[in-house]
Amino acid sequence: MHTMIQAARPKPLRLHHAPFSPQPDPVSGKRHARVLDIGSGTAIWLLDMAEKYADTELYGLDMANMAPDGLYHNIDIRPVDYESPWALGEGSFDFIHLQMGLGSVGNWPLLYEKIYRHLKPGGWFEHVEVDFTPQCDPQDATLPQDGILCKWWHTYVAPPYAVVGRPIVYDPNTGDLLHQIGFLPAKHVEYRLPLNGWSSDQAEHVSGTWWEYAMSYGEGRGHGLEALSLAVLTRVQNWPADHARRLCEDALRQATNPSIHAYNKLHIWWAQKPPGTPR
Question: Cα–Cα distance between 26 and 272 in angstroms, integer?
């Protein structure tokens, strides 16, 4: 998933759109800063950041703590639920990053408030999400709106996330909510993520190929579509596991059909805590 998201972004902005740039210390010359990744997963984003910003303190929060052994010396992963207290120091971070939180957060305003409190004045927050709603250009119309892929999302998978209080549907009002918390007006950009390599645009072709790899089955593949679906279908909707897997297989078969020009959207928001505000 990380590679798919990177492939969709312009090359100079693949790690972040926020204008985070550690300034050199006047004495040591080191470019020191504190960065936090919320929901760090395998720590792949932190590893990339550690290569680019060697003098930066990098922290990750992830209850599952799937990071590999032998991380860089400047990476510290805390195995905690990021909706619980952090104990990392309010007003101490230069940059906070959150990627793919939809479906796991119960109270977005509360989480945004916590992020705001932990940023230094002038610090940046970047929020990266995929809107998994199957979409297709109207003039193309190759995606059947009554087909299994659309039903997989709209009828079977998205609703139970809302039932358990952790919505997975993308909120287009994210910028307004960040501003209400206290951030300066947020900036936003979106990129198409084709569901396979159908697009003639080079960047979209590559990101679409990675979408198919990340979401499909097989050795070394991401199993992403099944990962989004199985828990809510079997635990919330009480489906038998084999029925849930059959739905995923049917939806994936339609998603990866190159004659169907469907896509998701990648959304990136970034906003600054006003300089000069109290920590």
Answer: 24
